Amino acid sequence: MKTFSIFALSVSACALALALSGCGQDTTSRPASPASVSPKPISQLKCPDRQGRLRRVAQARDGQGCDYSDNNGQDVSLRLIAIGNSPAEIVLLGVENSLFALMPAADMPAIPPAQPKSPEPPHAKAPAPLVLPGIKVKTEHGKTLVQIGGLSIHTDDKDDSVRIEASSATGTMPLLHSEQGSVSVNARANTAVIRMHDRGEGIRRSLIIACENPGPAGFRVVGYEARGPMGGPLVIATIKGKSKHERQVFKDLKALVALNSGR
């Protein structure tokens, strides 16, 4: 099996932790069921001088935007975006396209076309599965399956891909679901694209793109967090980072958005 970048996988792991357990955030003051909280429209952003390791470096007079930075080459922009008559998905698609443009196109994951199966050699014998307490690992024909409870992680040497699935009573889904939302991970040897979608009222979307190789402007990690009512405006925070020290910044970015959206 080929080796997947520790950088890309670590970003994936942190993204999953952020989505499913808050990545260590204190949740004692939050409602028991975030999905029941409806975000309220706001007219101006709250932009504190500091948020965690982020420090404010610019602020718009009209209250529609502010910029933050840390000591590791990570930049965060917070914006209040009106969506007008456009669906929120169209606005977020524009944000996503601008972020993907900052990353090396050749490294971005893509869903490979279906390939015909090669005939198996006669008497081919697959390696015996490796079974550990709570974990089962099976490798065959360049593909590896890791099963941890109802969670399955598939890797394929042919296209350097990683797929994460969660099993339920109704079948297997290509998304990892929690009570608060769902997460999809698409990864290659040195790249990971993680999308998060909240099940609650209003809009809550997240995207993280991480690549071992820097893009044209030197960024290795880009992404956004967006929250707001269905009709807008949306609080959108984007991150652009050149270093590999992204975990704390993700927490601080989410905290800035939560401060303004109330979720």
Q: How is this structure best described in words?
A:
- By secondary structure, this protein is an alpha+beta fold.
- It has one domain.
- It is built from 3 helices and 16 strands.
- It has helices at residues 6-21, 88-100, 247-261; strands spanning 50-51, 54-59, 65-69, 74-81, 130-132, 135-140, 143-148, 151-156, 161-168, 171-173, 176-178, 181-187, 191-198, 203-211, 221-228, 234-241.
- It has a 16-stranded antiparallel beta sheet that branches.
- A hairpin with a 2-residue loop joins strand 6 and strand 7.
- The longest helix is centred in the N-terminal third of the chain and has 16 residues, at 6-21.
Describe this structure in a few short sentences.
The protein is an alpha+beta fold and 263 residues long. It has 3 helices and 16 strands.
Keywords:
globular, 16 strands, 37% strand, alpha+beta, 263 residues, 16-stranded antiparallel beta sheet, single chain
The coarse overall form would be globular
How many separate helices? 3
Residue stretches low in confidence (pLDDT < 50, at least 5 long) are 20-36, 111-120, 167-179
Number of strand segments? 16
How large is the radius of gyration?
Answer: 20 Å
Q: Count structural domains.
A: 1
Mean pLDDT: 75
**Helix percentage range:** 10-25%
Described by strand count, sense and barrel closure, the largest sheet is: 16 strands, antiparallel
Roughly how many Å apart are the termini?
A: 41 Å
Topology summary:
Blueprint: H1 6-21, E1 50-51, E2 54-59, E3 65-69, E4 74-81, H2 88-100, E5 130-132, E6 135-140, E7 143-148, E8 151-156, E9 161-168, E10 171-173, E11 176-178, E12 181-187, E13 191-198, E14 203-211, E15 221-228, E16 234-241, H3 247-261
